[in-house]
Write a structure and sequence with these properties.
This protein has helices spanning 2-53, 61-107, 111-124, 129-136, 140-152. The protein is an all-alpha fold and 153 residues long. It is rod-shaped, with a radius of gyration of 30 Å.
Length: 153
């Protein structure tokens, strides 16, 4: 039963690590999208500036319409970027809270589970039955069982 508990704790830790990796990848994709949008916004702003630099008396109705359209596009892009930034911040905060919760849960595991996790690490490092008994205060049968399970896997 204790090896099942150790396995479940390890699985929970792995799931938390996978969730963090997915969150980081998603965050990178969103950051790249925001950078592309900022480049597009810069281009639109430069185009608007070029149109506005034209002398006012020479500006045609078509130019005025183009300037208005560019202003609308810039305003729309700014709203979209602000919305995307808010979403990213919310996702990041949610992911940080989930990570903190998972970490706290792992830290609050029963001391017995921590003891078996430590014993498992010692077994992986090549500890003997006597080493396990002494370092983890395990009965001989449990130490032998841990070593046997490690050899089977």
């Amino acid at each position: 039963m204790t090896s099942l508990t150790v396995w479940l704790a390890s699985a929970a830790l792995m799931l938390a690590v996978v969730a963090i990796i997915v969150a980081v990848m998603t965050n990178r994709k969103h950051t790249e999208l925001l950078e592309r949008q900022q480049q597009r916004l810069l281009m639109l702003t430069e185009a608007l500036g070029a149109l506005e630099e034209q002398p006012k008396p020479r500006r045609s109705a078509a130019d005025n319409a183009a300037v208005s359209k560019l202003r609308e596009e810039i305003a729309q892009w700014q709203r979209q970027q602000q919305h995307a930034i808010k979403q990213l911040e919310q996702q990041q905060q949610t992911q940080q809270e989930q990570f903190a919760t998972t970490l706290q849960q792992l830290e609050q595991q029963e001391p017995e589970i921590k003891l078996y996790q430590r014993a498992a690490k010692l077994v992986e490092q090549g500890a003997s039955v006597d080493d396990l008994m002494q370092a983890c205060d395990l009965p001989r049968a449990e130490a032998e069982l841990m070593l046997a399970m490690h050899k089977r896997s």
